[in-house]
Specification:
By secondary structure, this protein is an alpha+beta fold. It is 26% helix and 35% strand. The protein has a single domain, classed as Thiol Ester Dehydrase, Chain A (Roll). This is DUF4442 domain-containing protein.
Length: 157
């Protein structure tokens, strides 16, 4: 198993120096020891500013991209194939200053994954992430569908 998925501090370090996130000024601020909660921030800068002086929409989308997939990979270890299948973003208001997104893997999500994939079926759960500004106002809503399937050697079929 990949070492970064067993050590939250290492996961956080590697994510924070990963070029696609680093250069967009996206920072993983918090990762729980059990990989079930994370908090990401992004500060407006010359690297992620659009033509009208607000956060570039692609950067907002990027700040939510890998986290549910990577957190579930850390939680589920090597028993599952986990991918982002599709996603869309609804821009609600301009992003200015610093913005935040939180990711939470619930007991219900983990139970649903186990139930729907036990016999090798694929499962396509939908998760929602709200990107908020410093005042707590929602500036964007990201809907993401994950592809999850138990690997053949771990199935009950």
């Amino acid at each position: 198993m990949n070492l970064m998925y067993s050590r939250p501090w290492l996961f956080k370090l590697l994510i924070n120096i990963w070029p696609p996130l680093f250069f967009a000024r996206i920072k993983l601020e918090y990762m729980s020891d059990d990989f079930r909660e994370a908090r990401v921030s992004m500060k407006l800068s010359a690297w992620n500013r659009n033509g009208v002086g607000t956060l570039f929409g692609g950067a907002l989308f990027s700040m939510t991209d890998p986290f549910y997939m990577l957190m579930l990979m850390a939680r589920m270890r090597q028993q599952y194939l986990i991918w982002d299948k599709c996603a869309d973003i609804d821009f609600i208001k301009p992003g200015k200053g610093r913005v935040y997104a939180e990711f939470i893997i619930t007991d219900q999500l983990l139970e649903d994954i186990e139930k729907h994939t036990a016999n090798g079926d694929k499962y396509l759960p939908e998760v929602v992430t709200y990107i908020k500004d410093e005042a707590g106002d929602v500036i964007a809503k990201v809907n993401r569908t994950l592809y999850i399937r138990r690997k053949k050697r771990f199935r009950n079929d």
